[in-house]
Amino acid sequence: MTTLSATYSPDDNKLRLYASTRLGADTYARVKAAGFRWAPRQDLFVAPMWTPGREDLLVELCGEIDDEDTTLVDRAEQRADRFDDYSERRGREAEGARKAVERIADGIPFGQPILVGHHSERHARRDAEKIENGMRKAVRLWQTSTYWQDRAAGALRHAKYKEQPAVRARRKSRPGKGRCLPLLGFAA
Q1: Does this model's pTM top 0.90?
Q2: Are residues 16 and 54 in the same domain?
Q3: How many CA atoms lie less than 13 Å away from 66 in the CB half-sphere?
Q4: Are 184 and 8 in contact (CB under 8 A)?
Q5: Is 178 inside any structural domain?
Q6: Residue at 64 is within a domain
Q7: CA-wise closest residue to 36 among 13, 14, 52
């Protein structure tokens, strides 16, 4: 039996649906049609913003919508931790690629040219290609590692920005843009 629970967070104006097991095909189709997306790392369905239709669906499925236990900053810290893990993994892979290139290059005497016409020419050209491809891979992985570091810092910066009272007040006071807070019993 699947148990469902729903939460709403006024910090980010998002509805979240938690399921203890996999949803049935018909329920899944309804949730997807309502605009919910599966967030695998968080193990939940999330809607990008509150709408009356989404609220009605969650009330029908869960009975009630609770307020979210985690704050925007807590979720941003969890996200930043995930991004840091990604960055560390890419950094380790980049270092592994660099060491593989170093092992190949250490077998070639410094300054040794490719001897054209010699029986070693094919092997030397293959090694040169491996070195070049390995260095490209290492650089690409280092860039990816830096990207995830920047994303982690950006996630925290964005959460702190969204938590500012003036930003929250502007978001709450724009009813024409679909960002007006719902009447779920939360104080505005």
Answers
A1: no
A2: yes
A3: 9
A4: yes
A5: no
A6: yes
A7: 14
Q: Distance between CA atoms of 62 and 127, rounded to whole angstroms?
A: 61
What average pLDDT does range 66-88 have in this prediction? Answer: 88
Residue 78, SS3? helix
Q: CA dihedral in degrees (24, 27, 28, 29; nearest 10)?
A: 120
Domain range for 21? 4-70+168-172
pLDDT digits (tens, 9 = 90+) for 117-149: 888 889 889 999 999 999 999 999 999 999 999
Q: Give the tens place of pLDDT for each residue, 30-59.
A: 999 999 999 998 889 999 888 999 999 999
Residues 6+ apart with CB under 8 A from 19: 2, 3, 4, 44, 45
Separation of alpha carbons 48 and 104, rounded Å: 49
3-state secondary structure 123-187: HHHHHHHHHHHHHHHHHHHHHHHHHHHHHHHHHHHHHHHHCCHHHHHHHHCCHHHCCCCCCCCCC
On whether both 100 and 155 belong to a single domain, the answer is: yes
**DSSP 3-state assignment of 50?**
coil
Pairwise CA distance, residues 181 & 187, whole Å = 9
Ramachandran region, residue 96 (left: φ > 0; alpha: ψ -120 to 50; beta: rest): alpha
Domain count, the chain: 2
SS3 23: coil
